[in-house]
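Recap from last week: sequence in, structure out.
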Amino acid sequence: SSPPGGLPPSQPLSGPGPFRQDELEVVLESLCDLLADEGFLPAVFASFDCDPGREDLVQPLVQFVCQCARIVLNSASEELGPNRELGVLVVQAYKTLMAGLQHRLLLSDAFPQPGPRLLGLRELMRAARQAKHVFREAARRFHAKPEQGLAYLQGLAVLPTPLTPAAVARFLRQAPDLNKEAVGSYLGELGKDSPRFEADGRLFHQQVLQQYVSSFPLRGQGVLDCMRVFLSAFRLPGEAQQIDRILVAFSEHCHACSLEGQSGLLENPEVTYLLTFSIIMLNTDRHNPNIRADRRMTLEQFIRNNTNYGRDVNQTRPLPRPFLEAIYASIAELPIRTERNGLAAAVTAEVWMDLQLQARADPRRAVLLTLDQSPPLLARLAALHRVSQQESCPSGEGDPAEAAGATPSDVARLLLAGEDPQEEPQGREALARLLLFNPLGLSAQLSGCCWLLDADLLRCVWKDLLLVCISVPMSNFRVMLTALATDPLQPGLSPGPGGGPSSGGGTDGRRLKSWLRERTGRALQLCTEFVTDLLRVSNQHGLSHVLATVLLLLAEFTGMSRQHSLQQQELNVAEKVFDLLDYVPQEGSGLSKPALLRA
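Predicted structure tokens:
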């Protein structure tokens, strides 16, 4: 769709990739239905984005919807091509998201002024969200040098002083954003005989490794499933001695927990160790692309190597052939994988199994938070997951307002707190832990208050929502500037005040403006509706910085800032706004940031 003046046509959207069109449509339709549920987004925000031990989910979801909506709004129907229906669904998802924020505003208006209980809960959830920043900074320092990350957490009293192996193991197991390669490297370290830092000692490293391995609830699982779950949590180091140390510790725990160890099929930890080492060798041999097909280990070779390890490991009977055949077939079909961190990682069968085992060990973590107002539902969930009613609905054990004084460091410490009596938090921290890490208890406290966390949610995503609102005006201005750059002297298009385009009485100027109006008229109308909705919800939630940003942008777009000489101030208003939004011009557009600021 080429505009007048010889401008190149916009690039069409790429295809849907490995997914079929109907599959993507079902996903987006389902997302719209979920967003239409008034309690869905707040419940997911509380369960993931406000849980320091989990990855954010709402923020990246909203960012992705907004990114897609900006592409759709700036594309003509013919440019969307076969993806037009997907584009309609993306815009519908954005509209449903904004409608949900407004609907929950109406619910909050009908609710009495929040009392100390609700305000205390909101402050507690904010502290939980801020605790993620504590762990991210600790992870950054740990990746550079492990002792720096551990010392940082000690300085905030998140980890105890003196440091204990159990506390470090819980940090490696539970803290989000830790690089899996860094975790594997630390676990495999031998340690020093005379360390300057307590966590560098040889005995300390051995105890951390034992505590870390013991944190996996593997009882009742097969040896191969135990290995899959264990190796999904970190990446094995490359040094053979480090791998050996890790597998020795794992084989002892695996032998005590696995079905084969309990039944006597694997007679002792030494046999378990040799089998697990052989499985890792098989996994590498079968799935390393650098190994030629004719050099790969065959089934008969694997069985011959593992049937009988000899008297050195006190093995009195050979391993059954069907058992070894099943292991070989499983590895050949599905390799042992360690996915990278973050939401981009695949939810593998190993990761899912680990989540199930953790939920089995702590039934309270087996359900997500719900904002349903039905007490019978909460009671049923509590009974289903073997949690007492007093534990699942702790309203009689204290006022949540009493837990509001918990800081982000307090919440981070609670996440890593052990089950030992001397480490069990008391008083305010005990109530904070019960509320934060018990979805049923928190559901009982938040029942019917789905609007409570909307202000915090909006603080996380307002930039992305705003970029959708201004996407079409910014795109139109880019087209105008490109036309000027192509032929700055064409009739009817002369530079206006501050260098922006000014359409005079020339035919080409009117044609270009008419083309833009025809191409983006409906999209521009949608952007106007969106920015009105954003102003309304931001005002109701008292987010004055969002209001100021929107109004300053409107002043820039309408030229009012130039009329009132706002740009003559010591600091350019628009420059500050775009820095706040982290707006970056498209690569290869030939447009400088000052040119965009003159929009």
